[in-house]
Amino acid sequence: MSNKRLFLIDAYALIFRGYYAFIKNPRINSKGVDTSAILGFTNSLFDVIKRETPDYLAVCFDKGGSQDRIEIFSDYKANRDETPEAIKIAVPYIESILKSLNIPVVVKSGFEADDIIGTLSKKAEKKGFQTFMVTPDKDFAQLVSENIFMYRPMFGGGYETWGIDEVKKKFEVTNPLQVIDFLGMKGDAVDNIPGLPGVGDKTAKKFIAEFGSMENLLNNTDKLKGKLKEKVEANKDKGLLSKKLATIMLDVPIEFNPTEFKFEVNNTENLKKIFLELEFRRLIDSVDKTLGIQLTNSTKSVTQNNSKSETIKLESQTQKFSAGAGQFSLFDSQENDIEKIEYLRKDINNTNHYYQKIDTELAANLFFKKILNQSFVSYSIYSKNIDPLTDDILGIAFSWEKNKCYYVSAENKDSIFFFKKIFENSSIVKASENIKTDIKILKKYGITINGKIFDITLAHYLINPDINHGLSLLSETYLNYSKINLQLILGKGKLKKEISNLEENTIINIACEKCDIILQLKSLFSKELIDSSLLTLFDEIETPLLKVLADMEYEGINLDVNFLKSLSNDLNSDLIKLENKIFLESGEKFNISSPKQLGEILFEKMQLSKNPKKTKSGQYSTSEDILVELSKKHDFVKKILEFRSLFKLKSTYIDSLPTQVLNKTNRVHTEYLQTVASTGRLSSINPNLQNIPIRTERGKQIRKAFIPKNKDYTILAADYSQIELRIIASMSDEENMIMAFKNNEDIHASTAAEVFDIPLKDVSKSQRSNAKTVNFGIIYGVSAFGLSNQTNLSRSESKDLIDTYYKKYSKLKTFISKQISLARSNGYVETLSGRKRYLRDINSSNGLIRSAAERNAVNAPIQGTAADIIKIAMINIFNKFIEGKLKSKMLLQVHDELVFDVYNNEMELVKSIIKQEMENAFSLKVPLIIDMDEGNNWLEAH
Are residues 648 and 758 in the same domain? Predict the structure, then answer.
């Protein structure tokens, strides 16, 4: 075994980890700079140095993303949020810190740090080195060998080293290289790697055990059964693509020269100057202790002169800690107790608690008598966590006093009877974590949740919409308490336990601890909702909507699977015809989905471009934007784009939707997420029914598959007409727009008449189209450049049109300026219902970042208000249906549209209710108007 040890640090992984450790209480210095990411990374770097005293060390950065992966899959990492500005600010400082320590920064444009670390690790191994990859990213497990290890920072402090045995155990593989197959099968939501639909951790490990590799699985799909077989066979190309995307590259054009990686620090003066500028005074004190170098007198005096301000800072932090709201660095290893708060976090083992199972008749009688006299209880349903529509309740925990909780098993009918009495008692306020799921689970037992409810996830979403709302994070952030890790208890792979088979004491502790945490968080969040003026929004919109969505999800929608199969066959025929046309024009057969083969056809054989763009690996780029530009001159490229579009339509929707029909109901049950979009809009998943295409003829056909319950029902759709423009007209008090809406004029023609200064009757089709682009573009901050790209106007003509628009609609311009000013002053903007959208980058020194925040300052209140209005309408319609005991049901919400399954005998009454409630959901200065239609399927009704 080699005694030469190389440590390679995955820079951004540790920078992001450090930044989010301070997310609740960011470190802001006296100059207003957010230093959280810098401090988090530096602490972890020093921790590695102190623990391991590495011989060789380097830090690897991404630059420009992986061009090769983007080339073969344009959506790779496309769902990632904008990098927080604090991290963008941090990188130059971190590079300066590394430079002052003589630690090399390794970066290669067009490649990710994963690929750089992979390449260096293998090259170092050939030269007799042991390499330790410092990263929490499990993807690196594929690189582990006899001399290459993962060195993973653990939550709460410390590190764990993964060698071959650890990787085999954790991923249930026989060779670390199979980690690539595992990742390809299950996909990666973070990197937007699709994977095989329906395959998660458990199934991927089962496939690895049985088939060994992705390729072997795809060659033996005849051994699979049911819908899983259909999904895998329909997505073979997606599986192979996913494996390729998950493979860490080992051929980045960089060299490993050991002398350049030797870790030797000769002087720390520059480092101390950087720390002094950043106001990391405690780190200045620890520099020489960590690196083994004596302080100079000058630095000592600087540190002493700042001791007073340091004491004040510590006192301030101590006050935050005592209030129970602080969250500090996961990597900080300083001696000060405040800096080591993560290591002092409470858990079930060091907290006094009383968790009891109600297991005798006497205890049950006393318990139910006591609970029915409470005005408030928290609860936690303990189930198998499979599907709320099919799940069985194993037991429920209840609490009404901190650190005290009672667990009631659902093993007998008496328990269900008492559960019903508790949940249907309207005088008891009930709090839990995900009540929408609970409503669906309880419905199976004929139990309804009556009275006031408090969903802590929903409450926190309103309080802080931009971060994660998981119970573990909330507990650690607000209570400084680490909840039991259920995944660790259950284990993985073949040894994984069933939830129902856990030891009784473990079950009681898991259920009661969760219930106890909910109780404590409810107390904190109730106050924060009041302090933030969000209680009305919570009580009158979000909480009532929760019950509406639960009912919609439970109902589901009927799907014509045979129609989709027929459509799939038609589309397959079209693809074959289109493929043959492409082959005929190109003069040969090739894989149209292969960027490499397509690039050779386009740029070598057909020579459609004189200077074709290439990727970093030297392959021709065939990205969407390049093909769109080429298609303006070449019909052949239009066929390529059409092929791509049809292929995606078939695989993503037409072939996928039938596999998501629930066997128990023969219906599709989408799930609506209330706590994802910071604007307040709902999100649809499993399947996503909000993104079904509507602009192309083939896309529209998919809506034909959504049909009524039976012949006694009809699909009805109702959507708001130009609701965002009506809201901006009302919020800005712009008279010309208000008058146009009140007169029921065509708003785009009316705008064209204003800006082109012509009578309404003389507006041309082209003028109306340009005005429409400006109308909608204003909400999103359209520029002259953007407008010229979307219209046939030149950039100067676009600028003139925008300038004229603002002259004619001066109040609209004033409104936009006011919104930006409010955002700068308050740090947030609000909808008409009081929903807050926080804009942390509104005062950024970076112009591009600041401009994006300014656009959000304008469009967030518009989008958010539109979202709030349709939510109010949904609640009111739902209540009217309940009051009237109607058979008709609300099924779907797609942004500004609602879809219903209407019992034919109730059609006129339902139409009247929908029109009344949607058009009167909110009072604006202009009328709200809906368009409504009906049919034998969603397309006919749209």
Answer: no
